[in-house]
């Protein structure tokens, strides 16, 4: 009996030792596999980044199509396109923006903006395709806009993790089943022109550190339209620092009236601030395209009366006046309106 117990003890002791040895051996192999896998993964990741950095530099030319500017908040690359069809969109990851452009290798850095190669913009191969690649400084708050009025592609690279100092709510008047007024020669509806202006205000405002909220950024369906109260709600819900509604004026009894006017509401919660912004916008608009100055006016339009912030409504010419309609059919004039209205907003907000 004692002999059997001793044998059992030896058996179980030997079995335990074998199990421990086997576990140690397998554990070592598993550890080696994990370490090897990590090394391969890191190598692959590093290889991808190295390939991006080894992209082809973009050369500098006096006739270069790529210009550069910067504000306190953003770097701005502007790429002049022959036709907007040259641009097919973009992709991005945490580190880069990749622009899909036809004949991308034809683009050069303009020597007026670049005195030496810029390592932050270059050509690289992505999925076998040559792509214009731009390095981000921060993962968030980087933007790509195609200006359909000028065929300029604009890339905004944030210089700060939180670049926005104010919020501006931009309202392109009318839309969808509410077309607004129509040009006397039927060349446009108000909703079309106000949207064109408002869309180009957005990158201008962002470049100078203004977050932009659009009440709409495209036309609505024919059976849809934004009620005035909904426009007010969008402005107030986003706690805007400024609200600007863009419109086209008209007078159906005469075509002699023309020019620009900016309205504010005396019953707005901050009428003095609204008037101050109206003055800045009117001043900036009148710097180009020889608009008639119709001055600052007050009217209790609902969207500017109920917006709980400085609020104005800009009447960009008369759809009933031939001279103004000619201007409003000129994309360069519309682009100037977008820039100048934005400049007035910025001057007001930054001057407070």
Question: Short description, anyone?
Answer:
By secondary structure, the chain is an alpha/beta fold. Helix content is 36%, strand content 27%.
Polypeptide structure, described:
With about 350 residues, the protein is of the alpha/beta class. It has 2 domains: about 55-145, no CATH class; about 165-350, 3-Layer(aba) Sandwich (Aminopeptidase), CATH 3.40.630. Helix content is about 35%, strand content about 25%. It contains 7 helices and 17 strands. The strands form 4 sheets. It has a 6-stranded mixed sheet, sandwiched between helices. The chain has a 5-stranded antiparallel sheet with strand order 1-8-9-6-5, covered by helices on one side. Strands 3-4-11-10 form a 4-stranded antiparallel sheet, covered by helices on one side. Strand 10 and strand 11 form a beta hairpin. It is globular, with a radius of gyration of 30 Å. It starts with a helix and ends with a helix. The model is unreliable at about 1-10 and about 25-55 (pLDDT under 50).
């Amino acid at each position: 009996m004692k002999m059997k117990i001793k044998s059992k003890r030896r058996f179980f002791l030997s079995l335990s030792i074998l199990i421990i040895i086997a576990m140690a051996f397998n554990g070592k192999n598993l550890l080696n596999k994990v370490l090897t896998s990590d090394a391969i993964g890191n190598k692959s990741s590093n290889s991808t980044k190295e390939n991006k950095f080894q992209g082809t530099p973009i050369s500098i030319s006096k006739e270069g199509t790529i210009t550069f500017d910067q504000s306190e908040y953003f770097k701005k690359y502007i790429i002049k396109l022959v036709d907007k069809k040259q641009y097919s969109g973009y992709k991005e990851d945490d580190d880069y923006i990749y622009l899909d452009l036809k004949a991308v290798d034809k683009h050069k850095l303009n020597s007026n903006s670049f005195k030496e190669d810029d390592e932050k913009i270059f050509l690289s191969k992505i999925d076998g395709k040559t792509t214009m690649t731009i390095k981000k400084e921060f993962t968030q708050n980087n933007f790509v806009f195609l200006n359909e009025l000028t065929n300029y592609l604009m890339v905004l690279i944030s210089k700060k993790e939180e670049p926005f100092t104010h919020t501006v709510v931009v309202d392109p008047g009318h839309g969808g089943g509410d077309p607004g007024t129509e040009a006397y020669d039927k060349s446009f509806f108000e909703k079309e022109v106000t949207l064109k202006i408002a869309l180009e205000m957005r990158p201008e405002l962002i470049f100078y550190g203004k977050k932009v909220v659009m009440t709409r950024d495209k036309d609505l369906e024919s059976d849809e339209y934004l009620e005035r109260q909904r426009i007010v709600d969008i402005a107030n819900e986003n706690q805007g620092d400024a609200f600007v509604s863009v419109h086209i004026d008209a007078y159906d009894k005469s075509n002699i009236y023309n020019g620009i006017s900016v309205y504010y509401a005396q019953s707005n919660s901050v009428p003095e601030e609204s008037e101050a912004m109206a003055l800045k916008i009117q001043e900036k608009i009148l710097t180009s395209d020889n608009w008639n100055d119709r001055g600052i006016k007050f009217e209790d339009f609902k969207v500017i009366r109920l917006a709980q912030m400085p609020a104005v409504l800009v009447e960009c010419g008369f759809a009933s006046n031939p001279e103004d309609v000619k201007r409003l059919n000129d994309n360069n004039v519309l682009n100037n309106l977008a820039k100048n209205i934005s400049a007035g907003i910025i001057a007001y907000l930054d001057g407070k």
